[in-house]
Amino acid sequence: MNKYKETFGVDISKDVFDVHGSNKGHHQYKNDEMGFKKYLTKMG
Q1: pLDDT tens for each residue of 3-44
Q2: Among candidates 35, 1, 7, 41, which has minimal Cα distance to 21?
């Protein structure tokens, strides 16, 4: 039984962070406050 709808992998570096979702694919964001807000909006 698979209770998870999607899994994510995150790679964080000094300038950017990459997020790969099993359903949503790859996205890259700036590693700053605006990038994190954009990530929350996109993934929410």
Answers
A1: 878 889 999 999 999 999 998 899 999 999 999 999 999 877
A2: 7
C-alpha 19/C-alpha 26 separation (Å) is 6
Closest alpha carbon to 2 in 26, 23, 29: 23
With beta carbons less than 8 A apart as the criterion, state whether 18 and 27 touch.
Answer: yes
Scanning the structure block, which residue is given the tokens 């790859």?
26
Q: Give the pLDDT score at 10.
A: 95
Q: What angle do CA 15, 30, 40 make, to 5 degrees?
A: 140
C-beta neighbour count of 32 within 10 angstroms: 12
